[in-house]
Amino acid sequence: MSDKARAELAPTGVLRAGINLSNFLLVTGRSEKAEPIGVAPDMAREIAASLSVPVTYVSFKSPGELADQAENNVWDIGLIGAEPQRAAKISFTAAYVEIEATYMVPKNSAIKSIADVDKPGIRIAVSARSAYGLWLENNIKHATLIPVSGLDAAFNKFVDEKLDVLAGLRPGLLKDIEKAPEMKILDGKFSAVQQAVGTPKPNIAGAAYLANFVENAKRSGLVASLIEKHKVKGLSVAPLT
After folding, report:
1. What's the pLDDT tens digit per position in 52-99?
2. What is the pLDDT of residues 150-168, one digit of tens each?
3. How many CB atoms within 10 Å of residue 92?
């Protein structure tokens, strides 16, 4: 490891890790000190240990809010989905985990498959600025996206306004369907949200170090062990690059 990588990633002597609290698969609880617990915080802790520095967590309510601070010297690494809109300011590693994203529709809907969704007149509720929401912004051509701030609010708008489709991560939709058994989840996926580790663009040596760390973490079984430790369903180790 180069001294330059350590200097870029921990300029204050502490690794400041930006954590997205809204991803319930990667942040599964809080400690007695109110620190986030889960796969993402543990990944950050492992990165800090490899740098021989302590870690501190900088929590955000959404990935969009975390990404907004990329140029403000608030965090050194950020653990969020790697999307093109965010990559303008953040250098991302390859994904370390993947989460399947799909759709929920009413059981009596004419929409029977993923391919049926992107058609004129179809209204899709989605959590605003989520990684899969950004993917839909880039790829939906005919249907209408209705971004709503927050997962619960997106579900409520879908149900209350009788929208056609709710987009979400499959594990989250499985929880939602318990509240709305009149709905169904479509087979397959429209995207796999890839969760990565990012650092601000100027950190060239730091970005190279993180890229190598993530590949080693996947290859060594570290990522798989963290998923097992936190007993997370719906999360899988991303392929090696």
Report:
1. 999 999 999 999 999 999 999 999 999 999 888 899 999 999 999 998
2. 999 999 999 999 999 999 9
3. 22
Read off the pTM: 0.77
Q: Which residue has the tokens 């403000």?
A: 72
